[in-house]
Design goal:
two-stranded antiparallel ribbon; ion transport; transmembrane; transmembrane helix; Helix Hairpins; 2 strands
Length: 155
């Protein structure tokens, strides 16, 4: 029987090797070691959500608990997207992503709202060629747009 998620084995060993020079000049905070990001390959990475800090010369044991959400076959026909407050991949095509997952939808929603409200997007947001990238003068607008999404003021 197949299991989800697909496994390569019960234990994975990873050896991280870095350069031997001070990295304090390249980071916001004085730090040493590695930041390892765990991410679903179908989703846009959100660095601040899923990283593990690993100090030099240390062993780390990490437990990963994947989540999978399934829906009954009649849920899509019985309830409208407005009532269930989510979409199935066949109901919505994203402009910037090939896979419809909730995180990608939120990133695209924030991108579209930021562009609409501020006339630009942050450099890391998905965008088309020619889209203006926000500079520091638009920082207040960009932060307000992100807060509006976080607080549920936009849908």
């Amino acid at each position: 029987a197949q299991s989800y998620p697909y496994r390569g084995g019960s234990i994975i060993d990873i050896l991280l090797a870095g350069y031997n020079y001070p990295i304090d000049n390249f980071t916001r905070n004085p730090s040493q070691g590695f930041l390892v990001l765990l991410n679903n390959p179908a989703e846009v990475p959100q660095f601040m959500d899923n990283f593990i800090a690993i100090r030099p010369n240390s062993d780390v044991i990490v437990s990963i608990k994947p989540q999978k959400m399934d829906a009954s076959s009649n849920l899509q026909t019985k309830y409208s997207p407005e009532k269930r407050r989510c979409y199935f991949p066949s109901e919505r095509q994203l402009a910037y992503f090939t896979s419809y997952v909730q995180r990608n939808c939120k990133v695209e929603c924030l991108t579209n709202y930021t562009l609409e409200e501020c006339g630009c997007v942050r450099y890391y947001m998905p965008h088309t060629p020619g889209t203006k990238i926000c500079d520091l003068s638009r920082q207040g607008c960009v932060i307000a747009a992100a807060e509006a999404l976080t607080l549920g003021l936009i849908t």
